[in-house]
Amino acid sequence: MAETRLTVLITGATSGFGEATARRFAREGHRIVITGRREDRLEILAGELKTPVLPLCFDVRDKNEADRLLSGIPGDFAEIDVLVNNAGLALGIEKAHEASFDDWETMIDTNCKGLAYVTRKVLPGMVARGRGHIVNIGSIAATYAYPGGNVYGATKAFVRQFSRNLRAELAGTPVRVTVIEPGLAETEFSVVRFHGDAERAKKVYEGTSPLSGEDVADAIHWAVTRPPHVNVDAIELMPVCQASAGLSIHRK
Ligand code: NDP
Ligand code: 8X3
Fold this sequence. Notes:
This protein is of the alpha/beta class. It has a single domain (about 5-90, about 100-185, about 215-230), classed as NAD(P)-binding Rossmann-like Domain (Rossmann fold). It has eight helices and seven strands. It has a seven-stranded parallel beta sheet, with helices on both faces. α1 (about 15-25) links the parallel β1 (about 5-10) and β2 (about 30-35). α3 (about 65-70) packs parallel to α4 (about 100-130) and α4 (about 100-130) runs parallel beside α5 (about 150-170). The site of NADPH dihydro-nicotinamide-adenine-dinucleotide phosphate has 30 residues, from α1, α4 and α6. NADPH dihydro-nicotinamide-adenine-dinucleotide phosphate binds near residues 12, 16, 86 and 87.
């Protein structure tokens, strides 16, 4: 049992970083609210975590449903101490002039608008209670451009700047804000990006030692467990096999 039991809400806990983060905090006895669209996975995870767990099945793009469920969080779970805004996705790797606009809209609606809805809903309680920590999951794609990164990278730049602005606005309150920006990590991310093509997704990680969900959960956990006067503003982490390669020059 943790010395201080926190209530931790993690969006997108049905796989990858979110699931690993739920398991990490649950191991220490914290109360966990897990969310995602796949109800079966939420139920299975809730059954496996040996700590109080509340599964909330909703799509972060659905503002009304997010409002309804987050307003109705019962009893002990209602006072969120830590919000991990993790739900998100990349769709497609085509260059901008060939990419699907539907994919772009889905990324903007999920990674920007969904994250903003959940934050707007949870943040007032944190400020009123005088405690709380928002951890936003950005990406190295916010900083480093790559072909096919177009709107995905831009949504993650939104996440980074939104996090910085929250920090600026919350100075003077005890509420903390962190943005975590991972690089190559093997989760279901690439299967989703390639619209379910698991073979193509596997190739992304061939010959590499990518980050795992647990590596990112570890960074989140570290940021959250610093002393209350310490705000970890940002963490950028990559696997050792990855590095920013700088600018490219196209020659005729
Ligand atoms: P996964 O695909 O494994 O997990 C994504 C999670 O987000 C799932 O639980 C999914 O749940 C949830 N999710 C997606 N869309 C929605 C939605 N509309 N409503 C609610 N939940 C949603 O990928 P990762 O764990 O890798 O990704 C987690 C975050 O990390 C994302 O924001 C991603 O952009 C970011 N990231 C990933 C990197 C990587 O290389 N893997 C690197 C840097 C950042 P469900 O489908 O059940 O709704
Ligand atoms: C995921 C990392 O480099 O595939 O955010 O965009 S990358």
